[in-house]
Specification:
Length: about 220
Amino acid sequence: MNVTERNSISRRDFLGKAALGFGLVAMGQFAGPLLSLANAQGAGTPQRIADHFASVRTMMGEFVQFGPRGEQTGGKFFIERPGKVRFNYESPSHFRVMSDGNSVVLENTKLRTADIYPLSKTPLKLLLDERIDLSGDKVRSVREEDDLTTIQLADRSLFGDSTITMMFDPANYELRQWTITDAQGKDTTVMIFNVEQGVQFDPSVFTIDYQRLDQMRQERR
């Protein structure tokens, strides 16, 4: 597996590999009222959430991930917006996901393989942007319940028919989980907990060692 920058990303390939740090819970699982976009946006719920999310520059915590085949993994995550994220998976998983603001690396530390994708062409961009972009037709739906507010976003220019769904605490607008479903309807879910905000990170946390990745590629030739 080559360590190459993929300017023309295979959406199915990326979303398939991203049983690594991304996810979706099907909208049909929620019984709360689905608001029309006009009513939801008029009520200001999506914008209030977007404004709060934009104010949270850094966070870290633990996560549990449920893959499309029911597989479960967990670990620790670190986010520094805009653009930076790191997922350290617990044993027996050998995966690590990182973004330095420009590229996303999906690495298998056991097999010493990695794929690199432009952040701008992945669903992570919507999660890691300066703010949640509610412009145009990106907001597919808003669902408000007593314990969760759910916003489903889509951007065909980024990842075709796939969607990302973000779930927030309605009391404080804090992110509780995010989800992705691919064009084939396969879901991966990431739930986060024990979250700390306003954390200061050493720059090395999000540094991608491209020279090391290139050396890995040379070793596999």
